[in-house]
């Protein structure tokens, strides 16, 4: 008998859905979709594979193409992990205050990492990459405007949630960064049941939560369609941090701060329900943040 041949990309998706016992209550169940179980450690593996395979399939890139992409971390890691699987070379651009784990992981996968000044934030990283493309010789995936990003979640994340809840999901909660996850899942779940409520999460004014953005209008991802989100919940940095620590302590779910923000929003939604099945995206793993102070409280 010949053993089946599986590649790294075959391991992306079909992540577990775990009941959050301490945060659920009679009649209202909270489930965490553990995207840290993807091989690259985050939900961004899905979008990275979709964008890479889409660009290669359409002939937009070849192994000779100089690729560049601005990232806050997880998309960059996913692209770095997969790029070499396809024989591609990649430069990633991110703010200098990114955690050391993220930078070292990207470099370990063979990507070139360029750090832009912290004070110009993610917008500065985007501007740097755009300038390189405008100058010629570079191609950018543009995760903020690439339809292959939400398509990945329409084709995989959404169907998995519907399948694993037996169609019982009533609310879906996701942090909003590129907005690819929430756009794709919303499109799928609403097609199955228009009554499913889609809840987006963004930081309060002045809060810094890695992976969640409150975008200035001129940088708002072009893949974002506001009509696909029924409710937006603002979460503070303090509340996101506290919930991230609680998830590790009480649920043994070791995740990053954006997941703490998403679960905070999910508990607020749950507080207003008499019954429901809430699914929240836990987008990555906590070991990506150990050099920060998130787990020191």
From TrEMBL:
What PROSITE patterns does the annotation carry? CYS_SYNTHASE (PS00901)
Q: Does Amino-acid biosynthesis appear among the keywords? A: yes
Binding residues for pyridoxal 5'-phosphate? 74, 177-181, 258
Q: Tell me where on the tree of life, at the top rank, the source sits.
A: Bacteria
* Principal EC category: transferase
Give the keywords, sorted.
Amino-acid biosynthesis, Cysteine biosynthesis, Pyridoxal phosphate, Transferase
Would the keyword Transferase be found if you checked this record's keyword annotation?
A: yes
Q: Which residues carry this modification: N6-(pyridoxal phosphate)lysine?
A: 44
Name the record gives this protein: Cysteine synthase
């Amino acid at each position: 008998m010949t053993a089946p041949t599986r590649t790294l990309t075959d391991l992306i998706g079909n992540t577990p859905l775990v009941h959050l016992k301490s945060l659920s209550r009679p009649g209202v169940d909270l489930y965490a979709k553990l995207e840290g179980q993807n091989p690259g450690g985050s939900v961004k593996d899905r979008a990275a594979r979709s964008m890479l395979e889409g660009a290669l399939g359409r002939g937009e890139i070849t192994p000779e193409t100089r690729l560049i992409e601005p990232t806050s971390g997880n998309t960059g890691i996913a692209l770095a992990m997969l790029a070499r699987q396809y024989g591609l070379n990649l430069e990633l651009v991110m703010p200098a205050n990114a955690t050391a784990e993220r930078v070292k992981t990207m470099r370990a996968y063979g990507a070139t990492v360029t750090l832009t000044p912290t004070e110009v934030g993610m917008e500065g990283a985007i501007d740097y990459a755009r300038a390189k493309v405008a100058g010629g010789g570079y191609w950018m995936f543009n995760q903020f405007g690439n339809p292959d990003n939400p398509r990945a979640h329409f084709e995989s994340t959404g169907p998995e949630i519907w399948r694993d809840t037996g169609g019982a999901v009533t609310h879906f909660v996701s942090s909003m960064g590129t907005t690819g996850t929430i756009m794709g899942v919303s499109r799928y779940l609403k097609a199955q049941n228009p009554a499913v409520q889609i809840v987006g999460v963004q930081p309060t004014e002045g809060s810094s939560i890695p992976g969640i953005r409150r975008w200035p209008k001129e940088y708002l991802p072009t893949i974002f369609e506001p009509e696909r989100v029924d409710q937006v919940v603002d979460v503070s940095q303090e509340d996101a941090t506290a919930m991230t620590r609680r998830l590790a302590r009480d649920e043994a779910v070791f995740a990053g701060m954006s997941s703490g923000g998403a679960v905070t929003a999910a508990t607020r939604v749950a507080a207003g329900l008499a019954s429901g099945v809430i699914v929240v995206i836990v987008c990555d793993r906590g070991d990506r943040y150990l050099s920060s102070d998130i787990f020191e409280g």
